[in-house]
Design brief:
Elements lengths: L1 H19 L27 H12 L1 H4 L3 H13 L1 H22 L5 E12 L2 E17 L4 H67 L5 H36 L35 H22 L4 E12 L11 E10 L7 H67 L5 H35 L5 H11 L1
Antiparallel strand pairs: 1-2, 2-3, 3-4
Helix pairs in contact: 4-6, 5-6, 6-7, 6-8, 6-10, 6-11, 7-10, 8-9, 9-10
Length: 476
C-alpha cells in the first residue's frame, strides 16, 4: 500500500506541475494601429504639461461643469437614473460569470460521509465511510479553461466600459436638457418683451386710426405682428414646461427645493474650456473605444479555447478517506480507502466541426478588429467636428452681438421717427421684426455654443480615467 501511495503522490505532483505550467494557445495580441492622424485638423499637439492638465479636466466631470445648479442635477441623475443602474448590474453579472469560469481552474473538493445498516436472516450488517475528493477536474494542459477565463475577463471589462459610456451619455443628456431649458427660458423672456412691444405699437396705431391720423391698414399690420408673437409666446411656454418635465425624467426625481424655475441662459460659459491641441491618442481612453478593444481581446482569447479543443482533455477523479463496519473502528489502522481515476478524451473525428469552430472564432476576431478601428474613426470625426464648431461659434456669437446692437439702434430710431410722424409704420414694423430675429438668433447660437462644449467633452470621453483605473485593478 505504501508503494501505491507513493505512486499516487508522484502522479498527483506531476499533474500539479503540468497544471501550474499550462499556457494558452491564444494568438499574441497587438493593438491595431489607430487609423487616424496624430493631431486634429488645424491643431498641433500641446506640451506634456498642457496634456496632463487636460487629462485632469477630462477625468472628473465636476471640474468641467461650473454651474452649481447643473452639478446638482447631474449628481441626482447619476444616483437615480434607471439606465445607469441597469448598466451597473450588468457589470456585476459579468464579474460573477468571470469568477465562475476562473473557479474551474481549480479542483472542486467535496467531503462525503455515509452510514448504512441492514438486517437480514438474523444478521445485521453495518457500513460507515468518510471520503474527501475531487470529481471530474479537468487538468488544463492546453489552456482551454484559461482562454475561457481570459475571454470572460475581457467581457467583464468591456461591460464595465459600456457602463462608463452610459454614465458619460447620462451626463451629456442632463447637460443638454438643462441647456435646452435655459435657452427656452431666454427665448420666452425675449418673446414676452416682444409681445409687450407689439401690443404697445398696436394700441398706438389703433389710437391714431381712431383720431384720423392713421390708417386701418397699419392697425391690421400691427395686429398681425402681435398675434403672431402671442402664438410664439404660447409655444415657448409649452416648451419650457416640457423641458422641465424632461429634466425631472432624466434625474429620476422632482427638481430640488429652491431650484430657480425662472433661470435663463446666462451670458458667461457654464463649462470649463477644453485646451486646444490635444493629441488624438487620448481617444484610446474613450470608454466606447475601450469597450471595443476589450471585445476584440475577448474574441482573441476565444481563439485559444477553439485551438485547445483539438487536443486531448484530461480529467481527474480522486478520493481518499476511511471506511469500516462501524463508527468505533472508523479511524483504526487498516481502515484507509482511496481511488484514483484519471480519464482522457481525444478528439478523433468531428466531421470538421472543430476546424469550423476555429475558423468562426478567427473570423469573429477580424470582425471585432474592424469594429474597433471603426469606433476610433468615428471618435476622431466627432472630436474634429466639435473642435471646428468651437472655433466658428466664437465668431458667430460675436457677430450676433453686433447684430443685436445694430437691430436695437435701428428699432429705436424707427420708433422715434414713426411717433414723430417722420417715417412710415412699415419701417417700424420691419425694425421690430429684425430686433426680435436678432435676439432670438443670439440666444439660439449661445445655446448651441455651450452645447458644443458638452459635445466636445463627451467626444473626448470625459470622466474616464480614475474610474477606469479602479475597475482594471479590481478585475485583476
Amino acid at each position: 500500500m505504501n508503494k501505491r501511495f507513493a505512486v499516487c503522490r508522484i502522479v498527483a505532483a506531476t499533474l500539479t506541475v503540468f497544471a501550474l505550467g499550462a499556457c494558452t494557445l491564444e494568438p499574441h495580441y497587438e493593438r491595431s494601429a489607430a487609423p487616424m492622424p496624430a493631431s486634429y485638423p488645424q491643431y498641433e499637439s500641446t506640451s506634456a504639461q498642457q496634456q496632463a492638465s487636460a487629462a485632469d479636466l477630462l477625468s472628473d466631470w465636476r471640474s468641467f461643469v461650473r454651474d452649481p445648479y447643473l452639478r446638482q442635477l447631474i449628481e441626482l441623475a447619476l444616483t437615480n437614473n434607471r439606465d445607469l443602474r441597469q448598466a451597473a448590474l450588468k457589470v456585476a453579472q459579468y464579474e460573477a460569470e468571470y469568477r465562475i469560469v476562473r473557479a474551474e481552474l481549480g479542483p472542486s473538493i467535496t467531503a462525503t460521509g455515509t452510514h448504512s445498516a441492514s438486517h437480514q436472516s438474523g444478521v445485521t450488517t453495518k457500513s460507515t465511510s468518510l471520503e474527501l475528493g475531487t470529481s471530474a477536474w479537468e487538468i488544463d494542459f492546453f489552456g482551454r479553461i484559461r482562454s475561457l477565463k481570459d475571454q470572460a475577463l475581457e467581457q467583464y471589462l468591456s461591460t464595465d466600459a459600456a457602463r462608463r459610456s452610459t454614465q458619460i451619455s447620462l451626463i451629456s443628456t442632463t447637460a443638454g436638457d438643462y441647456l435646452t431649458w435655459l435657452a427656452d427660458r431666454a427665448l420666452l423672456d425675449v418673446t414676452e418683451r416682444t409681445v409687450a412691444s407689439y401690443r404697445d405699437t398696436y394700441e398706438t396705431t389703433l389710437r391714431a386710426a381712431n383720431l384720423g391720423s392713421g390708417s386701418m391698414e397699419d392697425v391690421q399690420s400691427a395686429r398681425t405682428s402681435l398675434t403672431s408673437a402671442m402664438a410664439n409666446l404660447a409655444a415657448y411656454r409649452r416648451a419650457v414646461e416640457q423641458d422641465r418635465n424632461n429634466l425631472i425624467a432624466v434625474i429620476g426625481c422632482p427638481l430640488p427645493d429652491g431650484f430657480p424655475d425662472d433661470r435663463a441662459l446666462p451670458d458667461e460659459p457654464l463649462f470649463a474650456a477644453v485646451p486646444e491641441g490635444l493629441p488624438s491618442t487620448l481617444l484610446t481612453e474613450r470608454p466606447d473605444i475601450i469597450e471595443a478593444e476589450h471585445a476584440l481581446k475577448s474574441a482573441n482569447a476565444y481563439i485559444g479555447a477553439a485551438r485547445a479543443a483539438f487536443f486531448p482533455t484530461v480529467s481527474l477523479t480522486a478520493t481518499g478517506g476511511v471506511a469500516s463496519n462501524g463508527l468505533s473502528s472508523l479511524f483504526k489502522a487498516g481502515s484507509g480507502a482511496w481511488a484514483f481515476e484519471p480519464s482522457i478524451s481525444v478528439p478523433i473525428f468531428q466531421f470538421g466541426s472543430l476546424r469550423a469552430s476555429l475558423d468562426s472564432a478567427t473570423i469573429s476576431k477580424n470582425i471585432y478588429v474592424a469594429a474597433y478601428e471603426g469606433t476610433i474613426q468615428t471618435a476622431f470625426k466627432e472630436v474634429s467636428n466639435a473642435l471646428a464648431a468651437r472655433a466658428t461659434y466664437v465668431d458667430q456669437t460675436a457677430a450676433d452681438l453686433q447684430y443685436v446692437d445694430a437691430a436695437q439702434q435701428y428699432y429705436d430710431i424707427a420708433n422715434a421717427r414713426y411717433r414723430g410722424g417722420l417715417d412710415s409704420f412699415l419701417t417700424l414694423l420691419t425694425a421690430q421684426r429684425t430686433l426680435f430675429s436678432a435676439q432670438t438668433q443670439l440666444v439660439t447660437d449661445r445655446a448651441a455654443q455651450q452645447t458644443n462644449m458638452v459635445t466636445l467633452y463627451t467626444a473626448l470621453g470625459g470622466g474616464w480615467r480614475k474610474d477606469a483605473q479602479v475597475q482594471e485593478t479590481a478585475a485583476k
